[in-house]
Design a protein that fits this description.
Length: about 325
Amino acid sequence: MLVKKLLVAATALTALSASMSAFAAEWPDRPIKLLVGYAAGGPVDTAARSFAKFLSDELKQSVVIENKTGASGMIAAETVIRSKPDGYTLYFIASPTPTITPHIQKSANLNLDKDFTYIGNIVDYTNVLVANKDLPIKSVKELVEYAKANPNAISFGSAGIGSSNQLSAELMKQKTGTEMLHVPYRGNAPAMVDVMSGKISFMFDISGTAISYINGDKVRPLAVTSATRNKALPDVPTMIEAGIEDYAVTGWYALVGPAGLPENVVKRLEVALQNIDQNPEFDKLMETGGYTRTFSNGADLKAKVDREYKLWEAVIEKAGIQPNQ
């Protein structure tokens, strides 16, 4: 009797395994939902919609954007984490959500080791240090010197407490021993308006939106935060070239899914990402927006998340930024 039960169980397991393999091989046979944690029309959403078209072409299946806004991407993250791991709910994740938000929001109960299947990096973006044109400075070195000679005369804006552009400025302050006044806003756009008007001295803005203000001669670009120059801003030096030692940070967009995605689905998505990365049309589209194609697999993406999580944890602690509720 026991032998018979064991044989039945083994047969059931074999059937289940075959069923799962067939499922993975047939995937995708219906539209895929790609979540975005930020509002429609913003830089993350715009990049995600461009990417979705190429992913749809690669998978021969519709990829539908769904905006789940709030809590710096955490609403979307929680939706993905709770979703069925079948490959039909994926997350176009922006780097601040896993690397910065957990340090800023007490409610961000994110387990980076268990909550996601990491699929791969898509593109990197750099922040650009842009200053008011009437400020008597033309370089990062002059900005630092002016701030040291005129305590509390230099102010910088950000999208809010704990935002990536605030932390870019905090890192500069820490590396140069400079005091500067932080003025938080409800988003990058109002901060940029006040940089242009001179109400604040400078801000770090994402390259995708800063480029139009720079090309329109409305602000003065001083440096980019990436290790190499941005192709869309070839005349703007890096922070390292501008004299800030070991200053090289970028933001990025990547693809993740809920924990437990079938291995065959992950592999197919990795191949799709690699093909998109090599697509000249995608390359041109991203370069125009100030992005750099940076395909990596899931393991490399997870290592990047862990590394940047520790970096921003240290910056936030030294800056004395307190987590909110």
